[in-house]
C-alpha cells in the first residue's frame, strides 16, 4: 500500500539511528557503474602527526633556562627525565654534525684534506717514520699511552671516524695520538713494516711496546671496546714516595 511505502522511504527520525546510518554509509566502498569495471576505493586511515623534539623543548629541559611552550609544543614532548636526556643528546649530536659539515666545507674552500687542520694538542699528524719514532720515545719517557691511528685518504670509514677520534683525544689529554696516513709515500714503509693491510687500524703502544691492535668504527660495540682499551692500557700515574717516619714514631 502507498502509506506503507512512504513510511519505509522516510528517513529515521531518531538521532542515534541517523548517526548509525551515516557511519555505515561512509564506510561503504563505491560501486562500479553499470557496463564497466572500477576498482574499489580503499579507505586510508589518517595517521597522527609525528612527534618530534624541538630546540625550545630541549632548552626548557636544561637547568637555568626558562621557556614557555607554545600551543603546538604542548603535549608533544614527554617530561620524563629519560626522554629529556634523549632529546638533549639528540640536539647535541645534531649540533656536532652541523659543526663537522661546516668544518669540512671550510677545509674544502681552503684546499685542505679532511685529515688536515686544527687538532687537539695531544694529537700529531706524523709525516715521516722518524717523527713517529720520536713520538713513541716521548710517550715512553712521559709514561703515557700512545695511540697510532693508521688511515688512508681514500678510506670513507676513516673520514667519518676522524671527528670521533678527535673528540676522544680532547677527552683524554694524558694520551698521545699519532695520525699515520698510508696515502703518504713517506709512510708506506712504516705500513709495510707493521703489516697494515686494512684501515682504520689502531695500535696501542706502552713503553715502546705494542700492547693491543684493534679495528675501530662508529659502531657502538667497537667504540665501546676502544674506550675500554684506552682505560685498560693507560699507565697509572706513579705514586709519590712515602716519607720515612721519624724514629720517635716507630
Question: Notable features of this structure?
Answer:
5 strands; 42% helix; five-stranded mixed β-sheet; alpha/beta; disordered C terminus; 12% strand; 250 residues
What percentage of the residues does DSSP assign to strands (E)? 5-15%
String of helices and strands: HHHHEHEHEHEEH
Unreliable residue stretches: 4-9, 19-29, 43-62, 70-74, 242-250
> What is the tally of helical segments?
8
The count of strands amounts to: 5
Helix amount, in percent? 40-55%
The coarse silhouette is globular
Output the structural class.
alpha/beta
What do you see in this structure?
By secondary structure, this protein is of the alpha/beta class. Helices cover 42% and strands 12% of the residues. The protein contains eight helices and five strands. It has a five-stranded mixed β-sheet, sandwiched between helices. β4 and β5 form a beta hairpin.
Please specify the SSE layout and strand pairing.
Blueprint: H1 2-9, H2 15-26, H3 55-61, H4 81-109, E1 123-126, H5 129-141, E2 145-151, H6 156-171, E3 175-181, H7 188-194, E4 201-206, E5 209-214, H8 220-233
Parallel strand pairs: 1-3, 2-3
Antiparallel strand pairs: 2-4, 4-5
Helix pairs in contact: 3-4
